[in-house]
Design goal:
This protein has helices at 2-15, 31-38, 59-64, 78-86, 102-113, 125-131; strands at residues 28-29, 51-55, 71-72, 91-94, 119-122. It has 154 residues and is of the alpha/beta class. The chain has one domain: Rhodanese-like domain (Oxidized Rhodanese, domain 1, 3-Layer(aba) Sandwich), CATH 3.40.250. A five-stranded parallel sheet has the order 1-5-4-2-3. The longest helix has 14 residues, at 2-15. The chain is globular and about 35 Å long.
Length: 154
C-alpha cells in the first residue's frame, strides 16, 4: 500500500507541470513597479488583486532578510506546496538576492507552469530593493496570514 502511494505521488509530481516555459515568459518589474502592483487599489470595473511577495530561497536565507510580508516557499517545495500556500492569491512578485539569480527565474517559471497567472519577477532582487531604500525584515517565516500590502517606497 505504501509503495502504491509513493508511485501515485511520483506520477502526480511528474505531471503537475504541463506548461513549457522559458525566460521569455518572465515579466520583470523594478522595485517601484512591484510596489505599485502590490498596492493596486483596483477600480469600479476591476477588483484589487490579492498580491503576495514570494521568496523561493531557503528558510535560512529568508531569515537573514526578506521583503516585509513575503511568504517563504523554497523552490524545492514549490511544485508540491504552491497550490496550498499561494492558492488564495492572484498576483505574485517573486524575488531572490541579486541580479541574475537563477532561483527567482526558476520559481517564476514554475508558478507559470503550475497555472498561476500574473507572476512577476523582481529585477535585481533584494539588492535592487534595498538600493532603492526599501526595508527588509529578518527572522523565520510566520504562519501564513491575511495578504499584506507592500510597504510604501521611501
Amino acid at each position: 500500500m505504501r509503495t502504491l502511494a509513493t508511485v501515485c505521488l511520483a506520477i502526480l509530481a511528474a505531471t503537475a507541470c504541463t506548461k513549457s516555459t522559458s525566460d521569455k515568459n518572465i515579466t520583470y518589474v523594478t522595485p517601484f513597479k512591484a510596489v505599485e502592483l502590490m498596492n493596486d487599489p483596483g477600480s469600479m470595473l476591476k477588483r484589487a488583486p490579492v498580491s503576495v511577495w514570494v521568496d523561493p530561497r531557503s528558510p535560512e536565507k529568508y531569515a537573514e532578510g526578506h521583503i516585509p510580508g513575503a511568504i517563504n516557499l523554497p523552490f524545492p517545495r514549490m511544485t508540491a506546496e504552491a497550490g496550498l500556500v499561494l492558492g488564495r492569491y492572484d498576483q505574485f512578485v517573486v524575488y531572490d538576492t541579486s541580479y541574475d539569480d537563477t532561483i527567482a527565474k526558476a520559481a517564476s517559471k514554475r508558478l507559470i507552469e503550475l497555472d498561476f497567472s500574473d507572476v512577476y519577477t523582481l529585477e535585481g532582487g533584494l539588492k535592487a530593493w534595498t538600493r532603492d531604500g526599501n526595508p527588509l525584515e529578518t527572522g523565520f517565516p510566520a504562519p501564513p496570514s491575511a495578504p499584506a500590502k507592500a510597504p510604501a517606497p521611501q
